[in-house]
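Sequence, please.
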C-alpha cells in the first residue's frame, strides 16, 4: 500500500469488494465504501470493459452513509487505473478502489487534477464519451465551461431525447447559418431516432468527436456525418462574438 495515500480501505472492505467482483464477473462490479463498509451497487452497463453505476442506489446510499470511496473491478486484468478511471475519479472527487478478479490484488486512486488529452482518449461512459469530449474541447478551444449532466446507459435505444432537452440548459441555441468555430454538431447515428452523438466543429471543416467504444479523433466534417446532422448548435456567448482565430491556427493542432 502506498504510504502517501490519504484513503486506505480495510482488509474487510477489500475482501467484500473482491467477493462481489467474483459474483459479477465477467462483467465489472461496482459499489462504494462508506464508514469502512463495502456496499454493492448495480452495474447497469452491458459491456465487459466498463461500468455504469445505478445512480438511484448510489444516491440512496449517500443519504444513509458518508461515502468515502468508489469501488469497481477489473476482470482478468491488473488493478491499474485506465484513463477513463482517472477521469471518473476526478469527476467524482473521491478516492477509487480498484480490485482485480481473479488476481485478488487492489489499488487506490485519488483525485490529483489529471485530465486526458483531447485526442486518443479511450471511450468511457459518462466522462470519455461524445459529450465529455465536447465539454473539454469547448473549454480548451473557446474558454467556455458548460455543465455536465447524467445520461442513462444507451438512452437512445429507449427513445429518450436527452441531448435536445439538455442543450438549452447548457447555454446552446439552434442556428441555421454557416458553421462557426466551436459550434456543436448534433447527429442521429443509425439506427437512432433521436440525437445520440455530438461533435465539435473546428473551422474550417474539421470535427472533434468520440464514437461509442472508439478513441477520440479529429476528422473532416462531411459525408455520413453531415448526412446524420440534425441540429446545428451555438453557445450563447458566441452568438454575437465569434472566436477570432490567430494566423497560426490549424484545426489539426492542439488548441
Amino acid at each position: 500500500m502506498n504510504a502517501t495515500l490519504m484513503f486506505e480501505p480495510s482488509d474487510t472492505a477489500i475482501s467484500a469488494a473482491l467477493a462481489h467482483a467474483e459474483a459479477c464477473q465477467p462483467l465489472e462490479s461496482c459499489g462504494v465504501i462508506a464508514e469502512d463498509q463495502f456496499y454493492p451497487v448495480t452495474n447497469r452497463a452491458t459491456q465487459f470493459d466498463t461500468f455504469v453505476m445505478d445512480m438511484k442506489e448510489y444516491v440512496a446510499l449517500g443519504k444513509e452513509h458518508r461515502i468515502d470511496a468508489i469501488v469497481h473491478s477489473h476482470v482478468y486484468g491488473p488493478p491499474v487505473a485506465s484513463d477513463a478511471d482517472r477521469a471518473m475519479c476526478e469527476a467524482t472527487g473521491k478516492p477509487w478502489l480498484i480490485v482485480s478478479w481473479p488476481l485478488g490484488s487492489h489499488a487506490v486512486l485519488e483525485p490529483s487534477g489529471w485530465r486526458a488529452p483531447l485526442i486518443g482518449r479511450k471511450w468511457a461512459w459518462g466522462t470519455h464519451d461524445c459529450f465529455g469530449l465536447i465539454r473539454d474541447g469547448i473549454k480548451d478551444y473557446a474558454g467556455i465551461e458548460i455543465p455536465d449532466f447524467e445520461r442513462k446507459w444507451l438512452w437512445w435505444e429507449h427513445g429518450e431525447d436527452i441531448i435536445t432537452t439538455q442543450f438549452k440548459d447548457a447555454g446552446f441555441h439552434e442556428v441555421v447559418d454557416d458553421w462557426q468555430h466551436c459550434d456543436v454538431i448534433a447527429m442521429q447515428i443509425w439506427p437512432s431516432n433521436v440525437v445520440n452523438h455530438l461533435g465539435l466543429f473546428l473551422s474550417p471543416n474539421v470535427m472533434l468527436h468520440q464514437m461509442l467504444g472508439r478513441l477520440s479523433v479529429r476528422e473532416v466534417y462531411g459525408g455520413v456525418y453531415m448526412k446524420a446532422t440534425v441540429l446545428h448548435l451555438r453557445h450563447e456567448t458566441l452568438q454575437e462574438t465569434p472566436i477570432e482565430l490567430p494566423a497560426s491556427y490549424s484545426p489539426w493542432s492542439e488548441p
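The CA atoms of residues 130 and 211 lie 6 Å apart.
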